[in-house]
Amino acid sequence: MPTENNSLFPELGGTPGFPKPDVIPNLDMDRLSGIPDRSQGFVIASHVLEHLAKPLAMLAAVYRVLRRADSGAVSVGCGRATRLSQTCVRE
Fold this sequence. Notes:
Blueprint lengths: L1 H7 L31 E7 L8 H11 E10 L16
Parallel strand pairs: 1-2
């Protein structure tokens, strides 16, 4: 994965480089099943939910892995090709 990312983003010049991911799940099928309950201090899901068949199931998985006093950050895109586009506010 990191070498593939470096070839996709050559402008970064390999520095600082990309970290090797701990988990590479199929989020539609596995969601976060490889991560223990209440084990994470922070979860970021940036432009992920709008690409999933069951985005609410993914939100439930994020809640499951977060320690109760901690939080997560979720951002979603809004556009024609997204599954959540019907619920997005348009200007």
